[in-house]
Amino acid sequence: MIKIGALVSGGGTNLQAIIDACESGYIDGKVVSVVSSKDGVYALERAKKHSIEGCVINKKMYGDDTDDVLIKHFQDREVDLIVLAGYMTILSEKFVNAFKNRIMNIHPALIPSFCGDGFYGLHVHEAALKKGVKISGATVHFVSPITDGGPIILQKAVEVRDDDTPETLQKRIMEEAEWKIFPEAIKLFAENKLRVENDIVRRSDK
Amino acid sequence: MIKIGALVSGGGTNLQAIIDACESGYIDGKVVSVVSSKDGVYALERAKKHSIEGCVINKKMYGDDTDDVLIKHFQDREVDLIVLAGYMTILSEKFVNAFKNRIMNIHPALIPSFCGDGFYGLHVHEAALKKGVKISGATVHFVSPITDGGPIILQKAVEVRDDDTPETLQKRIMEEAEWKIFPEAIKLFAENKLRVENDIVRRSDK
User: Contact at 8 Å (CB) between B193 and B201?
Assistant: First the structure.
């Protein structure tokens, strides 16, 4: 059973999907610590409801030492995997290298479309609608020092509708893609079915 | 019933899918002329087999007048729509503007991924595999003066497999996506169900 650490900044709906998948046994793992970059976010409430440790670690508290504090926090808890579940802070190269191919992020588009610096939250969906794409989706990937640039684990396509707003598209991509492929990717990781070769993720079960 | 002109440069498998869709009645239209940029390509054989006019028009024959010759060729035949079915020549702004939102192209990726100058043929699939995407697909779009930049009409996602080569991925995207959405987009055009608003394609049937 793997130990999972989570980094959050907001409501934590993806965190909830992951907690549920662990509790149901779909993922052979357990979320052991939820760290938020912000005080008072609902993701911390979710942790509390499930008796998971929750705390706040951010630059306001630790300044330049923040990433060292974060690294030590997760190392002390011996986490096997760190999931970014709506974490709105850029991680340092030092942090990423400390957990190489052991940090997962979800991005609400089909990378390499609509990703990189500036593409976060509703901006992603605004850009997709402005381009007029008919298919968007979500991507789970390992985190590398380049924003949204790490090895892709899973992707799922979602239809874009003519009457979509950024909000309706965001909601559909969450429900139809994110809450499915994020737990699925973690399940595969927990079952040791993912290997990374030359920055490409291969599945040992396929 | 719309009149369709086709521009080709090679084997013409997409052309075949379109001819078949016209002959079966799926598209309320008829391919009236197939123009190739190269001599001796199999697309011209396909035209012949279906008693469709075929000819070669290229820069070697007409130099700087090529686009004027092409424009006149299709205007003389009163085509409603021009389809680029594996046409490997960049069209001039003059040609594109002469048939604004009446030229369709198919691109073997989910635009805006893996598109633009340099992304043609197998290069598209090589790039997708190098990036390690798990989903690719195809896009039908109206042609604008910017390569692969025009309004998107239809897209279809296709799964990428761990053991794919550029060739196997190309084949699957053709079979599962291109040969379906290209005829479908033409069908919608023939039924007058597509309108372009601010470079976004809207469907009147949805």
Answer: no
Phi, psi of B7 (to 5 degrees): -110, 130
Domain range enclosing B28? 1-99
Q: So what's the pLDDT on residue A101?
A: 95
For residue A88, name the pLDDT band (cuts at 50, 70, 90): confident
**Helix, strand, coil fractions of chain A, as percent rounded to 5:** 40, 25, 35
Task: Give CA torsion, residues A56, A146, A191, A180, to 10 deg.
Answer: 80
pLDDT at res. B90: 84
Burial of residue A24 (CB within 10 Å: 0-12, 13-18, 19+) is: exposed
The answer to whether residues B95 and B110 belong to one domain is no
Residues A85 and A45 in one domain: yes
- The mean per-residue pLDDT over the stretch B49-78 comes to 96
Is residue B127 within 8 A of residue B114, CB to CB? The reply is yes
Between chains, do B133 and A113 touch, taking CB under 8 Å as contact? Answer: no
Q: What CA–CA distance (Å, rounded) separates B110 from A131?
A: 12
- Looking at residue A66, its pLDDT comes to 94
Q: How many CB pairs under 8 A join A and B?
A: 65
**Structural domains in chain B (count):** 2
Shared-domain flag, residues A73 and A134: no
Contact between residue B190 and residue B29 where contact means Cβ atoms under 8 Å apart:
yes
Place of tokens 């046409």: B87
Q: Which residues of B145-172 are buried (b: 16+ CB within 10 A; e: fewer)?
A: eebbbbbbbbbbbbebeeebebeebbeb
Query: Min CA distance, B190 vs chain A (Å)?
Result: 20
Angle, nearest 10°, between helix axes A42-49 and A13-23?
Answer: 10
Best CA proximity match to A92, nearest among A62, A119, A67, A57 = A67
* Residue A64: DSSP 8-state: G
Inter-chain touch B114–A110, beta carbons under 8 Å: no
Neighbours of B85 (CB within 10 A): 28
Per-residue pLDDT for B89 more than 90?
no
Of the residues A67, A99, A131, the one at which a domain ends: A99
Q: Which residues of B touch A114 (CB under 8 A)?
A: 112
List the single residue in A with minimal CA-CA distance to B131: A200
Categorize the per-residue pLDDT at A90 as very low, low, confident or very high, splitting at 50, 70 and 90: confident
Q: Any CB–CB contact under 8 A between A197 and chain B?
A: no
Q: With a cut of 80, say whether residue B206 has pLDDT above it.
A: no
Q: Which residues of B are catalytic?
A: 107
